Amino acid sequence: MRxxxxxxxxxxxxxxxxAAALTVLCLGVSGCGGDSGAQAxxxxxxxxxxxxxAASAPVTASPxxxxxxxxxxxxxxxxxxxxxxxxxxxxxxxxxKTVVIDPGHNPDNHLHTAEINRQVDIGTTHKECDTxxxxxxxxxxxxxxxxxxxxxxxxxxxxxxxxxxxxYDDDRAFGPCVDERARIGNKAGADAxxxxxxDGSAVGNRGFHVILPASVRGGGADTSKIVGPSRDLGTRxxxxxxxxxxxxxxxxxxxxxxxxxxKDLGGLNLSTVPKVFIECGNMRDPKDAALLTSAxxxxxxxxxxxxxxxxxxxx
Length: 315
Known about the structure:
The protein is α/β, with parallel strands linked by helices and about 325 residues long. It contains eight helices and ten strands. The chain is globular, with a radius of gyration of 17 Å.
């Protein structure tokens, strides 16, 4: 089974030097400067974003050590509902802002193949409810990675005063379906939504990329109002992810920009609020897998995403 809603074939692109790749991304983020699914298939994935003059908001410095992550309880068959968030601090630079974090997949999706294979309407077509996600060759599941990074990201954003909602928190047996994930962000009236993922591509394909919504209109899908804001959000996340993690943009998707645009993902098509996906690295490449399985690097990944969100929300 493919690890995401749809995996278009992608040709390998020539690699740019690290400096050139960082230069492309840092155009949209002030201060970036010189700092620095289930089987192996091409990634989820491209147009480079224009520089943003508003992208100079200060960002939070990366913590030296990873924040503790709670041990998730065993999944139970509870009714589908967004997970409650811990009350945010009364004040902070993101006070009054709502952020929805969408941890990709579910660790137990593979036990519920009939349920996750059910077709749901994504506006322009029908797709599987959800997919199993990918894993490293050693068995570290993408769904476990996404929960871990999402927990760290929640902590960082709440420290800045944001109200944070997770689409799920290891509190259900499977899913949510991709259409429900979109509805959770819409219902919350979120100022920003980020879906956290890791890719499952071929060995040698390395780096991260941020997926932006394409202009789509059909059925229940209409992204006309969120394409621009989502591109701004994604561009900031990409630039600040480079700075926080030292990782280069994908060498196989997005032309080394770290950005890709897609119209076949229900989580983006059905969103009415600014939303992006981030593929933090390729779990099937040994070098990327070594990063993704490091708690210290996952903290840096969460910091880079948080910095991008903060930059976007502070304008």
